[in-house]
Specification:
Layout (H helix, E strand, L loop, with lengths): L10 H15 L5 H4 E9 L2 E4 L2 H7 L4 E14 L2 E12 L5 E13 L2 E9 L1 H7 L11
Parallel strand pairs: 1-6
Antiparallel strand pairs: 1-2, 3-4, 4-5, 5-6
Length: 138
């Protein structure tokens, strides 16, 4: 985090930090305490409902040894917004692949009930050699 940013220290910020830590530990059972079963998720042009979607993100095949860096985190009322960098090991090549993202979470009674977010999936796929370096013309 930038030296000029005061880290958020409230209860909701702590819940989001614990949620993000699961990407490193892969202990998805912890989501039962942190994420509502019918969590509403907005991102990548989709609107989905259910805890199974973040669980699936944690257990993405082909990527392991996730390291998370929180680049910025802001808490206000029932909302927490975080900018982050995830670095994974690509199992097939052993190379590190990095993905950045920004997510905004809404919490109720100490649990994530809704979130919005975008990640640089194209950048991650490009580093893995699965999509072209340059985005092709539409």
């Amino acid at each position: 985090m930038s030296a000029s940013v005061v880290p958020a220290t409230g209860r909701n910020a702590d819940v989001v930090r614990r949620y993000l830590r699961v990407f490193e530990t892969r202990e998805v059972a912890e989501f039962q305490e942190l994420v509502a079963e019918d969590v509403l998720i907005h991102g990548a042009g989709q609107h989905l409902r259910g805890r199974q979607y973040p669980e699936g993100s944690v257990l993405t095949p082909g990527l392991s040894h996730c390291r998370l860096r929180v680049d910025d985190l802001f808490e206000a009322g029932d909302r927490v917004t975080v900018a982050f960098t995830l670095t994974y090991t690509h199992d097939r090549t052993g190379r590190d692949l990095t993905m950045t993202g920004v997510k905004s979470y809404r919490l109720q009674d100490g649990r994530i009930v809704e979130f919005w977010g975008e990640t640089d999936l194209y950048g991650l796929l490009r580093q893995a050699g699965l999509v072209p370096e340059e985005i092709p013309a539409f």
